[in-house]
């Protein structure tokens, strides 16, 4: 898979179903705790900074953002979960929008769940993974910020995530860094196999 960075564009920031675009392309959704590195991941895969906004304040993304990736597939950035400072009302609204998208969208072929490689998965991470499995949504786990971990310890950290999430054998987990681009080729392969 080769992406032309100049052919990547946001289609829409949707707040409701009626706004989901009809592109005829497969969609790959992205879920993860706020600040885990979703926007950075999108930018790395697309080969261009500034496709998705990178926030210094967590919890900034509050819409479903659809990105046309070189007319090959559509990335759908799902707002970060588990941001403590969200109000109860905001959390409920988050749930409805995500649930209806993730469980009802035919075009969505897989969900990339991003988890910070430095730490064991949080309860929110585990809940999200269980949710995806319950609805039989294919999951690709991307363990982010691998550049922050010594190379010799990466496999150990991957093992912790595998165990704590109780990953099933068919589930893929890829340590990844938006800074060093570690395993970017594996990410392309994985996406190409799902769309
Ligand atoms: P929200 O949209 O707020 O939910 O955050 P996000 O998940 O989109 O995270 P974002 O890409 O904005 O990154 C959050 C912070 O982590 C930023 O300061 C990034 O520069 C940093 N970051 C993201 N990915 C990496 C990575 O692979 N390595 C390192 N070292 N830092 C990263
Ligand atoms: Mg973001």
TrEMBL record:
<dbReference type="InterPro" id="IPR030393">
    <property type="entry name" value="G_ENGB_dom"/>
</dbReference>
<dbReference type="InterPro" id="IPR027417">
    <property type="entry name" value="P-loop_NTPase"/>
</dbReference>
<dbReference type="GO" id="GO:0046872">
    <property type="term" value="F:metal ion binding"/>
</dbReference>
<dbReference type="Pfam" id="PF01926">
    <property type="entry name" value="MMR_HSR1"/>
</dbReference>
<keyword id="KW-0547">Nucleotide-binding</keyword>
<keyword id="KW-0342">GTP-binding</keyword>
<dbReference type="GO" id="GO:0005525">
    <property type="term" value="F:GTP binding"/>
</dbReference>
<comment type="function">
    <text>Necessary for normal cell division and for the maintenance of normal septation.</text>
</comment>
<dbReference type="GO" id="GO:0000917">
    <property type="term" value="P:division septum assembly"/>
</dbReference>
<dbReference type="InterPro" id="IPR019987">
    <property type="entry name" value="GTP-bd_ribosome_bio_YsxC"/>
</dbReference>
<keyword id="KW-0460">Magnesium</keyword>
<keyword id="KW-0131">Cell cycle</keyword>
<comment type="similarity">
    <text>Belongs to the TRAFAC class TrmE-Era-EngA-EngB-Septin-like GTPase superfamily. EngB GTPase family.</text>
</comment>
<keyword id="KW-0132">Cell division</keyword>
<feature type="domain" description="EngB-type G">
    <location>
        <begin position="24"/>
        <end position="195"/>
    </location>
</feature>
<protein>
    <recommendedName>
        <fullName>Probable GTP-binding protein EngB</fullName>
    </recommendedName>
</protein>
<keyword id="KW-0479">Metal-binding</keyword>
<keyword id="KW-0717">Septation</keyword>
<dbReference type="InterPro" id="IPR006073">
    <property type="entry name" value="GTP-bd"/>
</dbReference>
<dbReference type="GO" id="GO:0005829">
    <property type="term" value="C:cytosol"/>
</dbReference>
